[in-house]
Amino acid sequence: MLSPYPLSLLALALLQGSPLPPPSASAGCQEVQRIELSRERGASREICVSPGLLTGFVFDSMTVVDLQDELRFAEVTRGRTAISFMPPGDMEPGERLRLTARFTEGVPDSITFVLVAHVGQATRQVEVYRDNRTRESFQHEVTQERAKNQRLQEQLEQLQHELALLRTECDDPEGLRRLIISESVVGMGVEARRFTARKANPQDLLAANEGTSYRSSKRVAVAVLLVNNSSAPWTAHEALLMDAKGKEWKAVRLWQAAAIAPNGGEGLVVVEVNAQPEELRGEVTVIVREAGSRGISIPNVTFP
Description:
Strand content: 35-45%
Distance between the termini: 20 Å
Mean pLDDT: 77
Strand order of the largest sheet: 1-9-3-6-5
Number of domains: 2
Helix content: 10-25%
CATH architecture of the largest domain: Sandwich
CATH topology of the largest domain: Immunoglobulin-like
């Protein structure tokens, strides 16, 4: 006999966690890039740019700047020792454009940079020094690095706090906090109802004898014990519910601990769909299929 499906496992199925945050900008795309020409002769001078993001160059002496395909650029603003621009909106990732700075006096008389397009990643400011940097420049950099480290430290502390909360949840699988906080349980909580499917026939490749249906304030779920009478293991791949009018409700979660062994093996499968309290009333058909052609339809299932 199939025992009522544990609420703790339903809680994990209902709330499996948040999506991971998007990756941060690559190490090669610095927010502020400082270039000392006297120290970095022959060094690669590629600068990250991105359509929609502003990049500025600041030089330590008067400069005339030429941009390759400048007419394509969305915005260009020039000063005597600086230039800022927004790259072309149609600049493809990996595309390269040249920026050539011509100094009005001194050596070297010009320097060329390569603007490399990235997606959502750009160097905000490029500082170019022909001579050795001043003490004030280094002090300014130290101040910026300290502020950056402070922000990173705060982000690290926040991540550590969130990790501690996640560990607490994993260490307490019986906890109901997440269901309560998400308002998935109200009033009497999660309701359950046992049901009996048709008696399994040994000639059926896949059969179901009985199961349990569940309803929370936002979802319904069916836990059914399947019997695999075929000669190959069986793994659920997709599932849906169909009401009496033929409307289909695709599963938002489909859970199975492991493939069901062949030749009479049994395994629990849980199908879960979004449904408001007034929906999926009356008899429902549960349909579960593997990646191939094998599947099962379980009619006359009702929810609390």
